[in-house]
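Revision sheet: structure tokens.
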Amino acid sequence: MRTSIATVSLSGSLTEKLTAASRAGFDGVEIFENDLLASPLTPEEIRDRCADLGLSIDLYQPMRDIEAVPSDEFARNLRRAERKFQLMRRLGADTVLVCSSVSPLAVDDDVLAARQLRQLAEVAQQFGMRVAYEALAWGRHVSTYDHAWRIVERADHPALGTCLDSFHILARGSDPKGIQDLPGEKIFFLQLADAPLLAMDVLQWSRHHRCFPGQGGFDVAGLLRHVLSTGYDGPLSLEVFNDVFRQAEAGPTAVDARRSLLVLQESVGAASLPAPVVPTGVAFAELVTPDAQPLAALLGALGFARTARHRGKPVDLWQQGEARILVNTGPSGLPHSRLRSSGGTPIDGTGLAALGLESPDPAGAARRAEALLAPVLPRRRAPQDVPLDAVAAPDGTELFFCATDRLELPNWLTDFEDLEHTREASNVHRIDHLALTQPWHHFDEAALFHRSVLGLQAQQSVDVADPYGLLRSRAVTNADGSVRIALTVGAAPTDDTVHAQHIALATDDVVAAARRFREAGGHLLPIPGNYYDDLAARFDLTEEELATYRELGILYDRDEHGVFRHCYTHTVGRVFFELVQRDTGYRGYGAQNAPVRLAAQHAAGGVTGG
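Predicted:
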């Protein structure tokens, strides 16, 4: 199906918005009136610019406060509308959006509203235009789609139809099932937006918190199915008012927007994409560092051994059990890595730049990612190196699709030469989860990316109290928990704190692992004694347990599935490690303890993070 996006959904000048929409692959745009008014280009120049970019102008919007008003006011409205139709003719647009009135002059009279909208449609028809009437969720007298349709039906004019907007319908709690009773040819336009489920005034909710389909809590796919059942064949258009999107770079936002529409179309059977290939484990985590010594000391204390070195690159493999850490000491790290702070600025020092994800079909995973507009990353490799498919996540983290234990597929480990080493009894058996800090304007995009491109399941978003603000965190996982990634972001774009990434290592005995780490010279994050006094009040723990946890800085949590014990190392660069013990099916990440850990990291002078 054709796709479109309202210029109000993107940041920048009108020219920048049009360019971003075209490069992302949209077929058309809605021109928001304020964008046109602020543009130095004439309507003819905007029309030509859109044509050059391969964009149609699918809608001009909005025309407000037209109907159900006194006759003298309506006469003024018609004069205003004629001027707008003249403008639209110059612009090359043939459909205008008319929002249900919020004017205090409007009266609750459907007969009058229908008569005046019919007169408007007659004028529009003279200019070769159509009028799409939309019910605003906060309209003075018309606030639901079915009410708007009854007025359109009463007006009975071929140049008058309705515009359906998923936000206005779903935010009101209206049942979208009735849409399937509308004639498809009278649905002149469809606008789509999602939103988080918030208890707030619907106008403020709409103006500040809309998001792209799949990023909120609305059943946009269900609504779309009802619309398509009518025979509607117009564009799927995004109209999203969002404070974050308005401040973020237009190009990546447009790509995120189009990805959301591709996934939405797939969910209703309107688009065929390569099937999701869900990762089955973490093959490796790759750290880039200008100085390997502090990181080597930390890994050694954790029980890792330096087991192999890449044949042609300054990359070492450190391993313990099935947990593998690559340490890259190249002059510029990975060629496409973009280590960034929460504000998007480059970060010097040690950072997590890449993940290897075990995949049952690496080539299929790459095809899926490419179809959903994930940047496919070329690799600088020698002829003998194993070819690995890689794409970039929204935060710049490189994702490699691996088949470590599949004999019939290339194995990335063959690029490494074994080193002499002593492998001791392991306390760590695999990577439990990873926490990736997102630039503030990519949080929702990251969740949609990992869910749609990788096929991971997104958990509920949670807010975590940091001493200097709030952090948002949302985990994405596969079904059995062998892949867990926590996506974290500072709650405000003004947050200049550099949040760290961390790697959580699974152990069957966190107390033994913590003692071994400390005996090997490692430094565990100290936790305030007040935490353990509270822990004694909340849980029935023995004095011996409490004393051990207090001594080692071990944190404790419990849910209906089991128990979670965890502790943290000091930070190197902007990376730290966590030792975790999950008992009998605990599914969380110790979010209850996060504020204490964050405060302890601030007190220790390190960067903080997820």
